[in-house]
Write a structure and sequence with these properties.
single chain, 14 helices, 81% helix
Length: 366
Amino acid sequence: MICHGQWIPILMMVAVHFGFATVNVFLKKIIDKGLNHLVIVAYRQSISVVFLAPIVYFRERKNRPKLTIHILCQLFFSALIGLTLTQYFFLRGLEYTSATFLCAFLNTVPVITFLLALPFGLEKVNVNGLAGKTKVLGTVVCVGGAVLLTLYKGKLISNPHLQATNYNVTSHAKMMISSKKTQRWIIGSIFLIVGCTTWSSWFLMQARIGKRFPCQYSSTTIISFFGAIQSAILSLIIERNLPGWILKGKLETIGVIYCGMVGSGLCYVGMSWCVKKRGPVFTSAFSPLTQIVVSIFDFSVLRERIYLGSALGSILVIIGMYILLWGKSKEIEEFDQLKQGQAAQQDERCDAASHVIPITSNLTSS
């Protein structure tokens, strides 16, 4: 029975990241059809609100603290940074690259969050200790992988028959096509870097909001509501294309509904449950699983090309992320051991104090 209980969080995280992978594949297909990025975000967040509202009502209606104007303002800006802008930049990056490439960049989020937390004192690094050195090493390796992903494309290592057909094209045409693809690759990488940075900033904002408003489901529902409104307004301001809001065909309709229910609904509920059961380090450790599943879909379904630079950069990013997470877990262990040692010393002092003979009490009684 114990073993069964230990397997449930693992199976849950496998299901969650399989869900995230299918969401990314759906988004790539929808974007290729020409649907507006902000329209996708607006529909996705609207569906998320409808899906999460019943859960909020039954789980948090009795113990939810009062919503103040200050908390609502924080949630509004949290939605702007973490949902509207982040998803917009991710979708723009996905338009120029691939779902596998997007997932590779998502693995840099823990490292970027760590770097952004340093100036605010939310993270500390003791370079003299093993945990501090490990975190620095993981950060350097992960950043190096991200740079490799952006600047080096390399040879084609998947779908070699596509490369063979290129020999029929003139050398001048091949150079033009290669230059254009490299330019799109770099533009997409820039969008993804900005998206990862805004998402990392959102984690820091949510950590502060969570202390004042600790209801996760209510917070997510309100943020999704704000995100849907913000995306709709920005879409109308930027493009002013009302016909662009009409979903054309089964793929766009099913894809948007699926992304809202699974990507912003079920997967979030599953991750929140795993964080409570096994902690954030355990949950973060499964992040590369999304990239593995997406790579399989990219290769077999979408027929996307996989390049040497993407493979090498992804490996470095994943290794760096795991080194950083290991250093973080080691730091938590050292902190817990220090607290236990201090508590033991305090108990010893209390025991010593209890054995002192109350002289004044004996003198007054005699």
